[in-house]
Amino acid sequence: MDIVIQILKIVAMLFVAFCLGKLFSKIKLPAILGWLVAGIVFGPYLVDIVSLDIIESNWYKIAVKFFECFAGVMIGKEIIFKKIASSGKQIIGITIIQSLWTFLIVSLFFCIVFLITNVPIYLAFIFGGIALATAPAPALSIVNEYKTKGPVTQTLIPLAAIDDVIGIIVFFSVISIVNGMNGSADTSILTIIGIIFIPFVIGIVFGFVYSLIMKKINNRSVRFISFVLFLVLCSLVGLVIDINVFHSFQLNYLLMGMAFSGTVANVLGEEKMEEIDKKYSPLQMLSLVIVIVNLGMPLDYKLIAGAGILTFIYILSRAIGKISGAYIGGRATKADSKVTKYLGLTLLPHSGVSLVFAGIAATTLATIDPELSSMVSGTICAAAIINEIIAVILAKYAFKWAGEINNNKSDIINSKI
What we know:
The protein is mainly alpha-helical. It has helices at residues 2-26, 31-42, 52-55, 58-76, 81-84, 88-117, 122-131, 136-146, 151-181, 189-214, 220-246, 253-267, 270-296, 302-306, 309-332, 337-346, 351-366, 370-401, 407-416.
């Protein structure tokens, strides 16, 4: 009976989140901001409609993983290799440059601060590793809401996937080195490789099998139902690996859904993928709302009041790194001027991934120095709340300044979301 009540609470919160999203759209703000606010307000740290016990329960975490996989479809369906073949090297170049540049800038800022305050320097590189993380869902939900089109959108979608891979490699490499320096067991290289590539392998394999089967079936309803079922199978396989191999939720289910839909779009064909997408749209919207609300719930609003100089330095240095890194990467690869100017602003959201990284870093540091562990978790959690609200608004304006939001249609689109 308890679980039924818990589910009803979540459903009620999602309904409020949806209504808040429409309200925010009416005042020309992204709907995602309303979803985030609903998660923060009705989560465990304010109204407590959805308690900490609920969001820490295994059934809730598993359910969210399914919807993360469903949300990932939005990224993959846009990755058509024929379309991005000419700019593939450019996108990879921009991604690598802006990611590593962000790592260097944030690490440098904190190195200076920690040298002055006599804090161990290796902590600066942990902050740098966490800063690489980019949550694609917030920016891509704006793409979905405003139907943005143009060079910034075309660059952001494939970049979101590559950026996560680089972020995972750098962060876990830093954690491995810190463990080694302090006499702890190194993070296994095989574990790092597995976390990066397993979601892609699962998505690609299931996407390829699905596409081969569906090539012989012309019934649109069957194709759509099978599409959802195969996504469920992807998630189930991922969960089995997470529970039995990693003993925690380590895999990126957003990338899993992306790899699946990307494979389908390229093997089955763009036209059939568009047919599936028309039926899939309501489930896509529900998944995005759930994923974004879930990003907001772990954010403790009280941390804003306690945010200190480290939080300010983190937000500022990360913004400088992402924006200038995208600019340098754009110039180096001779990208479109709009990409060079505005892409960095769309890369600022990152709360979900940063909180995961912060949790791993805090656990690692707890055995070395509990005070450093608290410093990381407190700084990142406070930064996540402040940054996410600001970043979502800036991401919308980045698309607007790039001329990729159709102003004549935005009111109509807003009223539907």
